[in-house]
């Protein structure tokens, strides 16, 4: 079954949640456009990392369908904040179970795709996960992160309607960030969303994601698109941020130079 058939299914499913109400339709289209860009990012990773054959096809499906649960989530709860509604990865699995899915994949392969969708937003991935699932999840998480960088930076860089929420109820401040968030990211890890207080905290959270990228292609795409430099350009200029910036760029250079993981 051609990729275009699956893209059509996602587009039609998303558009079935349009109501004509401006705020609702903005958020539905936001996630539809995001899903298509994540697919494009995933295909770039698959091609450049030499992920061939069925594994590559399955990884592309996981990337395309990864946020299928976002549409019923927003329709039901009017938010994308999982803590105030439902885990959108799990909602994606339930949604795929209900949809009339195209042919071309075995039941086992669809189970793998659903599992990857359910795991794409977990805080930590099991390092012992086996292929092809490990590849599917890795491609999807990297492709998702690349686009989220762009969405968040664009959101913070332009005037917007109060109802158009991409980051949740964070105080905007030109220089403040939460020390615990900085320390968690500087240590090479992630942090709990509950710690986020300022918009700069979300930018720090994004930089923390860079340490968990699976593929060198992902690091290259982020660098070439200027997304990492833009992120640091929106953070305060001080010694702490400069130290983090140096650490991040060293890590990305090493990731780009490493052999493809496959």
Task: Count the beta strands.
Answer: 0
- The backbone outline, from C-alpha atoms, is globular
Mean pLDDT: 93
**Overall number of structural domains:** 2
- By secondary-structure content and strand pairing, the structural class works out as mainly alpha
Distance between the termini: 24 Å
**Element-level helix/strand string:** HHHHHHHHHHHH
Radius of gyration: 18 Å
Structure description:
- There is one protein chain.
- The protein has helices spanning 3-15, 22-48, 53-65, 70-77, 88-98, 107-119, 133-157, 179-186, 199-209, 216-224, 227-233, 239-257.
- The chain has 262 residues and is mainly α.
- It has two domains: 3-144, Hypothetical protein af1432, CATH 1.10.3210; 170-257, no CATH class.
- The two termini are 24 Å apart.
- The model has no long low-confidence stretch (mean pLDDT 93).
Please give the structural blueprint.
Blueprint: H1 3-15, H2 22-48, H3 53-65, H4 70-77, H5 88-98, H6 107-119, H7 133-157, H8 179-186, H9 199-209, H10 216-224, H11 227-233, H12 239-257
Helix pairs in contact: 1-2, 2-3, 2-4, 2-7, 3-6, 3-7, 5-6, 6-7, 7-9, 7-11, 8-9, 10-12
Attribute tags:
262 residues; mainly alpha; Hypothetical protein af1432; 63% helix
